[in-house]
């Protein structure tokens, strides 16, 4: 078990409700697929470490 069981940040987050209400729209209400956006961001971020990516030792633009 981790020590402490809850961090100060986690306790601060527990002060606020995180239950969906009709007061605010959700991703479903505004037709946004959050998983799709997440996958896009992962792909963009991961590019940096792929072969030929930004931090690769072999850059695509230098390959012949």
> Over all CA atoms, what is the radius of gyration?
20 Å
Q: How large is the share of residues in beta strands?
A: under 5%
The total of helices stands at 2
Give a count of the beta strands, DSSP E runs of length 2 or more: 0
The helix-strand sequence is: HH
Spans of 5+ residues with little confidence (pLDDT < 50)?
none
**What summary fits the major beta sheet?**
none
Structure class: mainly alpha
How many distinct domains?
Answer: 1
Instruction: Give the N-terminus to C-terminus distance in angstroms.
Output: 53 Å
In helices, the fraction of residues equals 25-40%
Kindly report the average pLDDT value: 78
The coarse silhouette is flat
